[in-house]
Amino acid sequence: MIQAQKITVKNKTGYVFCFSVQWQSSDGTWHATTISSGDYPAMQSRTLTLDEIGVPADAVAVTPYGHTVNPQLGHVQGTPHVTFASNDHIAIYEATVTPKERLQITLEKNG
Known about the structure:
10 strands, Immunoglobulin-like, single chain, about 50% strand, eight-stranded mixed beta sheet, plasmid, two-stranded parallel sheet, mainly beta
């Protein structure tokens, strides 16, 4: 699993997009940060630094959790998840809308 200290999401949805971060504790429970990227337009990206937004160092897995202004697309977690490490690395995800009008957030192959 990729280790990262920051998460970037490139908005390629064609809509205004926003994401927060979800993290999993050792007991398997998912938690959400209260700080988000804020709304940002298509073809831009935002980066959140995990330790600055409340993700604990012992988080088992970390992922972006995002949505667009189009409520029909819903909210989705990014895949695959990454692990948190204080290493200044960035996990880069892309938010896109599939041909079947489903939102997806996927880790770039070189992420």
